[in-house]
Amino acid sequence: MDTSELYLFLSLSNFLSFRRTAEHCAVTPSTLSRAVARMEDELNAKLFERDNQSVKLTAAGQKFRDFAGEYYLKYLKVKEELKAVSENMTGNLKIFCSVTACVCLLPELLNQYRFLYPNIDLKIETGDAAQAMSKIINHEADLSIAAIPSHIPQGLVTHGFTKIPLVFIAPKKIPQQWLKKGGIDQTVVPYVVSEQGALRREINAWFSRNGIKPNIIAEVAGNEAIVSLVALGMGIAIIPEAVIMQSASAADIQIIDRPGDIPPFNVGLCTTLSKNRDRAVKAFIDVAKNSLPKELTFKKLT
Questions:
Q1: Of 257, 258, 240, 251, whose CA–CA distance to 296 is shortest?
Q2: Measured between alpha carbons, how far is 30 from 90 in angstroms, rounded to an integer?
Q3: What predicted TM-score, i.e. pTM, was given to this entire model?
Q4: Domain chopping of the chain, boundaries
Q5: Antiparallel, parallel or unpaired: β 143-147 and 265-272
Q6: pLDDT tens per residue across span 118-138
Q7: Does 3-87 match 166-257 in CATH topology?
Q8: By C-alpha distance, which of 226, 224, 28 is closest to 216?
Q9: Using one digit for the tens of pLDDT, what is the confidence trace for 44-59?
Q10: Terminus-to-terminus CA distance in the chain, angstroms?
Q11: What's the CA gap between 118 and 97, in Å, rounded?
């Protein structure tokens, strides 16, 4: 039950007319009826007695009206107080992220943050995801969106908010010489890998666990470039699945494995201990934690 439904309930309690309430709240009578039905189901109580002639509050409805009225007034008061805080907050906030994060994560975040804090001047820099930590360490950004490592460099603070699975990708047409009975021949298949960062650490650990001496044909800065080289037939690679969704080369690759022994990236915001206390930074972190899903899911690649 959200505040919009409480407002509909309180309005209907006042007008005791579905038609007049619907007009006042700018909704259709059917929308109003469905909202009331959802509230009654959630509360497991009948709130209104209604027929073709009249609408009356039940005893349960009267009790709930007392609660809803008090709660809604408190909500409006807090909303006004938050509005005053956000309108008074000024300053600059520089954020670093990869192109993928910019496309997949930032739009919703920025929409909400700009709405709540219109006087904060936002600057966005995009680049290789492997640079996310160094941008903060070198004071080149206030916040970065990063894959959070198990060991956090001294002086940094991270806030995880979503997980992104990693997948193996290959060209749409896999060369016959890469194959053996049962699938990819790990002894001959060329790999395209990230030259540094969390993705390189994960693939190196996977090679070690599986006793693979990889034929690394290219070391690349940037996940988007990895997808492009795989699409050109250079080799196979492991990347965050989110990268594929915004890649211009998505039609020329295929997902060949979703490895269960490689955990998804824990993606979040990184900043310094001192910046973590900054009002604009703290506000952005709060918006991120409240607006993004705990794990990103993707449509099957065809």
A1: 240
A2: 43
A3: 0.59
A4: 3-87, 91-163+265-291, 166-257
A5: antiparallel
A6: 888 999 998 888 888 899 999
A7: no
A8: 226
A9: 999 999 887 788 999 9
A10: 38
A11: 21
